[in-house]
Task: inverse folding
């Protein structure tokens, strides 16, 4: 929930922060856009660390950065410090979505992941709806600095909990990144051994190149029994970009990353533009805007839980029809309903606010948009995220981190375009354009459910040939 709350909690306090610091509206717009961008890009760093040093270290480092950044913002007297340490706060909070999904992949088997991720993602997607309520209340009661002291506590408590209670879930035998490094080290060790002793060279190469060897951890432990000692993997052995490059080489990944990124952009656009509409057309105060926006978060929450269970049900049913053989693409068949219903809610919601419809209509449109949304882990996103994890066995954190990069870039663009589109076109046509984009991205999901298995097999065969 930290991810969503930290991104949205500042919004109700902008006016007071502008007067107190002082600062301009453009500076605060920059702080929001940079926060979104950093939160999207930084998971590639966390992913690389987690694939070598495990998940726990990432959780501790990221929570420390988020906590420290919140404290510095709370005592800042200059907008430059606020912008800089909001970026630090974003970098820290960015780890949870990518590494959290990887942790679930560590713990649960594919047939369980849809349900677990549906439950897990209720928190970060409810956060953007709770953030404005908390920010508005704290600002009215204790001033804008109190919201960042609240964020420091919000990040500090789980920091202590992870330090004391969390047992690392990272499985070296499931990480292709880790095993690729071990394979490289074993080949280097074999080469060095050949220079020292021909006999030792033969036995070492036998370990490295033996047919049927599937567990490189076992191989590395056998080699480490010799005089050279144990293989140690360092952070410098990992490039955060190569795993992402391997993820992007698969066309099935690219299509799904585009789908989730479009809907990430939509989420940031809707939460920002609906707040402006409720303020200008409905003349709502900040706390009422937050309460109305909560309907969107509640739609995400219910849709996430129900959608995750529906995703697992469709996977089990399709697997049974396929003679008990499972493929990741089977999960995408559960997205069919969301492909068509979600854009309808988007367009209808835009014209409802354009015509100043009763607030009850707006609330229903927001709830339905959250429930059927493609980005939010509702009927579609639970399935898509689980598919990204299932289709990239051994690279789950890299795949989710790549997803985060795409989403951050798209969200940055949508944040910059939101106000010009809304002011120039009005809510009706702005939301209709987004509905068309969402529909087209939904068709990519259907296309991947049909062709994805073929794309994935071709990519896996190519990677095996390339070694």
Result:
């Amino acid at each position: 929930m930290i991810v969503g709350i930290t991104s949205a909690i500042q919004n109700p306090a902008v006016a007071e922060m502008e007067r107190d610091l002082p600062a301009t509206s453009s500076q605060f717009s920059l702080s929001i856009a940079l926060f979104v961008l950093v939160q999207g890009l930084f998971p590639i760093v966390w992913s690389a660390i987690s694939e070598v040093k495990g998940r726990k270290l990432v959780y501790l480092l990221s929570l420390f950065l988020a906590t420290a950044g919140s404290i510095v913002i709370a005592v800042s007297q200059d907008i430059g410090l606020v912008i800089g340490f909001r970026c630090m706060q974003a970098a820290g909070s960015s780890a949870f979505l990518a590494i959290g999904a990887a942790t679930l992949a560590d713990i649960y088997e594919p047939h369980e992941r849809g349900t677990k991720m549906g439950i897990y993602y209720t928190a970060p997607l409810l956060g953007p709806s709770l953030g404005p309520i908390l920010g508005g209340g704290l600002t009215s009661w204790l001033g804008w600095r109190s919201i960042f002291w609240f964020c420091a506590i919000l990040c500090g408590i789980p920091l202590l909990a992870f330090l004391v209670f969390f047992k690392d879930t990272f499985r070296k035998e499931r990480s292709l990144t880790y095993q690729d490094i071990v394979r490289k080290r074993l080949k280097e060790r074999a080469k060095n051994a050949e220079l020292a002793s021909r006999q030792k060279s033969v036995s070492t190469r036998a370990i490295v190149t033996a047919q049927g060897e599937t567990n490189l951890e076992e191989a590395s432990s056998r080699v480490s029994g010799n005089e050279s000692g144990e293989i140690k993997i360092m952070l410098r052995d990992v490039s955060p970009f190569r795993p992402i490059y391997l993820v992007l080489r698969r066309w099935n990944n690219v299509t799904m990353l585009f789908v989730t990124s479009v809907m990430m952009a939509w989420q940031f656009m809707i939460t920002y533009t609906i707040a402006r509409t409720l303020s200008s057309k409905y003349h709502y105060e900040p706390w009422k805007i937050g309460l109305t926006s909560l309907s969107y978060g509640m739609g995400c929450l219910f849709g996430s839980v129900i959608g995750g269970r529906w995703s697992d049900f469709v996977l089990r049913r399709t697997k049974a029809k396929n003679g008990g053989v499972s493929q990741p693409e089977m999960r995408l068949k559960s997205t069919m309903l969301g492909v068509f219903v979600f854009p309808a809610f988007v367009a209808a919601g835009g014209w409802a606010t354009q015509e100043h419809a009763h607030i009850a209509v707006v609330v229903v449109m927001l709830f339905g948009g959250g429930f059927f949304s493609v980005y939010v882990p509702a009927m579609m996103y639970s399935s898509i995220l689980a598919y990204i994890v299932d289709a990239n066995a051994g690279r789950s954190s890299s795949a989710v981190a790549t997803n985060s990069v795409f989403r951050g870039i798209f969200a940055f663009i949508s944040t910059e375009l939101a106000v010009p589109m809304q002011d120039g076109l009005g809510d009706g046509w702005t939301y209709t354009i987004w509905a068309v984009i969402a529909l087209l991205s939904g068709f990519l999901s259907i296309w991947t459910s049909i062709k994805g298995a073929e794309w994935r097999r071709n990519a896996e065969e190519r990677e095996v040939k390339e070694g």
Summary: Residues 219-229, 374-380 have pLDDT under 50 and may be disordered. The CA atoms of residues 159 and 333 lie 38 Å apart. The chain has 20 helices and no strands.
